[in-house]
Design goal:
single chain, alpha+beta, six-stranded mixed β-sheet, 8 helices, 6 strands, 20% strand
Length: 220
């Protein structure tokens, strides 16, 4: 499967870091408190899959035992597992590298997936505690040849942020391979950053930068 397959959408070239964090938070907790705007007949299996993950993450966040300081690491592991069961990190990592991916051997591909997963996990892990109940409206779902897009809208203060989840069906399970915030693809955003490093330096330099960023989070 080519990395460009799936739903495409033109959008602005930049988006605030806060919006990306909100996107990752919403994957974990948004929508559980408000699922307005989606008629019953408009719901579909991809939407159900997203909601299932939302329900599990909210259950973990609301678990009083897990809120205790001595359960911080366990809580984080459970959250990462719940979100990881819905995010297809392999597919996301592959799409961020495009042509570079095919040049890597299997071990190198697996190493990059691990580093990319850590990058995303570390981005949302600490921020998820700051979720302040931004309501989410599920708008609609569309499917096309094994791909689906679940369109939502996040209401944050006076702002309404379009937030779409792109999923692909793998072994009868809907897995997220991209998140589009206000018209900007998370995968495309990282692809641009990674391409810049690879073209100005090398793939090895990109891997080293990701390793250092991962080590920095671990040391904190």
């Amino acid at each position: 499967m080519e990395a460009t397959q799936g739903f495409r959408r033109q959008g602005r070239s930049t988006v605030g870091l806060g919006s990306w964090r909100l996107a990752l938070l919403v994957m974990g907790v948004g929508g559980a408190l408000l699922a307005a705007g989606l008629p019953a007949q408009a719901a579909g299996p991809a939407t159900d899959a997203v909601k299932g993950t939302v329900d599990e993450v909210v259950r973990i966040l609301q678990d009083k035992e897990m809120k205790k300081p001595d359960h911080t690491e366990e809580r984080r592991r459970l959250l990462e597992k719940a979100i990881g069961n819905r995010f297809d990190y392999d597919e996301m990592a592959k799409r961020t590298l495009t042509t570079q991916w095919a040049k890597l051997n299997r071990d190198e591909q697996q190493e990059f997936v691990v580093l990319f997963k850590r990058l995303l996990s570390n981005t949302y892990a600490d921020k998820i505690e700051g979720y302040s109940g931004e309501p989410v409206q599920y708008l609609n779902e569309r499917q096309q040849e094994g791909f689906a897009e679940v369109k939502t809208k996040v209401v944050s203060g006076k702002a309404e942020i379009p937030l779409d989840y792109r999923l692909m069906n793998k072994s009868n399970d809907w897995r997220v391979y991209d998140v589009v915030v206000d018209g900007v693809s998370l995968v495309k955003n990282y692809r641009g950053q990674f391409d810049k490093v690879i073209h100005s330096s090398s793939y090895a330099d990109l891997v080293e930068k990701l390793r250092k960023k991962s080590d920095k989070f671990v040391a904190q």
